[in-house]
Design a protein that fits this description.
The chain has 19 helices and 18 strands. The protein is α/β, with parallel strands linked by helices. Strand 16, helix 14 and strand 17 form a beta-alpha-beta unit. It is elongated. Bound molecules: adenosine-5'-diphosphate. The site of adenosine-5'-diphosphate has 17 residues, from helix 1, strand 13, strand 14 and helix 13.
Length: about 475
């Protein structure tokens, strides 16, 4: 079976969030399941730098005002075969992939349009793809372009929502600029309160829709979780499925992690985590204190991630003799609140405002608890990494967090399933209560704590399981 994936991020070259991790790992896991999978991405400078280009597959003269564009067949280390949309007018820029230069709508409609054209024609090899699988709003118009095409081979389409909060909404006056077929601009299509909504277009036209956890698939069909598209999600509910993300074992593996001073497994967790903690406390300017429970955060800093709830709990954490380390970047007011806390509690609170892959790994290895107090979380990856590294996740019971963490209760301790701490209400009081539960268990029940760590480390979050679910979805579509 031939499957073409299209997306706007790829780990480790272009990463904003979890989408990059998924695009780095899922295609390889699908290949292991026997799928001929290829990947189409914008030719960002970071990708062109590492790519070995073989041929030009398509020429697009003046693609949506970008000037001459081409589709290159290439190899990128550590990935499957890739096609790079080389449109220098759009993608040859410094800064983040979503920085707005006033033409974001054209850049990503162009990515979707080029993906569709390539899938319809098959490039120089005339490949007939069975499935085109696109990810998030940046590629969501692909199914629209494919379904509305007059000629060509029409593959089935799958759209995966990694986060429904981001939809790509623009004034309808840009309709001509993005080459959108007029017949798709209606209530059951890409039209959205008299504007254009890229994601909604994809939701309307894709043959199947997936999202990255079963609980999130339910939540987005309700007004509270649907980001105004809950009606659309209910309308497509028969074609909607939640498939949980996995862990890239090549990147996140404590027995082989190059970012750690000492690697470890379930067997030497106690000694090795203590050592990683000590080294890390020194690295980030925390007091070297083996018995202080260390709470870690690796996150974009915004309110959806519940970072305001955490700020309200810093006093609570510190006054109980615990430590906090925050690695993240995002909203200015949150960044400065964490910075202020570091000044107020030197040795007990540390932060690294920025993005750093190595520190992210060391937070997981050193921390006793990883905090993920998200208001909404489609899947979440950091809680999976935490478990693999013996840090117990403490999270809000939502989306993928609810699907991957088993709350520590008397019952779950008895039946041997507990892996972390969950709280339900998204407010600072309930987060505080969960923090108290973690502190109490850590102080009074080290043996129980250790047994939960061992269980968490042994959880199966492999990509193979998820890839098999995607394969059965593909097979159902082409039946
Ligand atoms: P989201 O995609 O909403 O940001 P996820 O938990 O799905 O959340 O994925 C976040 C990914 O980004 C994880 O791989 C996490 O380790 C990484 N990450 C987030 N912030 C940082 C940071 N400041 N430095 C390094 N890695 C980070």
């Amino acid at each position: 079976m031939k499957v073409l994936h299209a997306a706007a991020e790829l780990f480790p070259h272009v990463k904003v969030g979890g989408l990059a991790d998924v695009m780095g790992a899922l295609p390889l896991a699908l290949r292991k399941e026997g799928i001929d999978v290829r990947l189409l991405l914008p030719a960002y400078p970071a990708l062109l730098k590492v790519a070995k280009v073989f041929s030009v597959e398509e020429n697009f003269p003046d693609l949506m005002g970008s000037g001459q564009a081409r589709l290159l067949l290439a190899e990128v280390p550590g990935s499957v075969t890739v096609y790079l949309l080389d449109a220098p007018g759009f993608f040859s820029r410094e800064g983040g992939p979503y920085d707005d230069h006033g033409d974001t709508h054209r850049r990503f409609s162009a990515l979707s349009w080029a993906t569709a054209q390539f899938a319809l024609r098959g490039g120089s090899e005339g490949i007939k793809y069975d499935i085109v699988h696109v990810h998030d709003w940046q590629t969501a118009l692909t199914p629209v372009f494919i379904k509305c095409a007059w000629e060509g081979h029409r593959p089935k389409t799958v759209l995966t929502i990694h986060n429904l909060a981001y939809q790509g909404i623009y004034s309808k006056h840009i309709l001509d600029e993005i080459w959108l077929p007029k017949e798709s601009f209606h209530l059951q299509g890409a039209e959205y309160f008299d504007q254009i909504n890229f994601l909604k277009g994809g939701l309307a036209y894709a043959d199947a829709i997936t999202t990255v956890s079963p609980t999130y698939a339910k939540e987005i069909q309700e007004p509270e979780g649907g980001y105004t598209l809950d009606g659309m999600m209910r309308y497509r509910s028969n074609d909607l499925k939640g498939i949980i993300n996995g862990i890239d074992e090549l990147v996140w593996n404590p027995t082989k992690d190059k970012h750690l001073r000492t690697v470890f497994s379930k067997k030497d967790i106690k000694k090795a985590k203590a050592y990683n903690k000590k080294v890390f406390q020194n690295e980030v300017g925390l007091a070297e204190s083996p018995n202080s429970p260390l709470f870690g955060v690796v996150s974009r800093l915004n309110d959806i991630k519940g970072m305001d709830l955490l700020i309200a709990n810093i006093d609570h954490i510190v006054s109980n003799g615990a430590q906090l380390v925050v690695l993240g970047k995002g909203d200015y007011n949150l960044e400065s609140a964490f910075h202020t806390a570091t000044l107020r509690y030197p040795g007990s609170v540390a932060n690294y405002i920025g993005y750093d892959e190595g520190i992210a790994h060391r937070v997981m290895a050193a921390s006793d608890v990883l905090l993920v107090p998200s208001r909404s979380e489609p899947c979440g990856l950091t809680q999976l990494y935490a478990m693999r590294y013996g840090a117990l996740p403490l999270a809000r019971k939502t989306g993928g967090l609810a699907d991957t963490i088993v709350d520590i209760t008397e019952e779950s301790l008895k039946d041997g399933t507990a892996t972390g701490f969950l709280f339900v209400e998204p407010d600072s009081w309930h987060l505080g209560e969960a923090i108290t539960r973690a502190l109490t268990l850590y102080k009074n029940e080290q043996k129980t704590w250790h047994s939960i760590q061992v269980r968490a480390m042994g959880q199966d979050f492999s990509w193979a399981k998820s890839a098999q679910q995607y394969v059965s979805l593909y097979k159902n579509l082409v039946k």
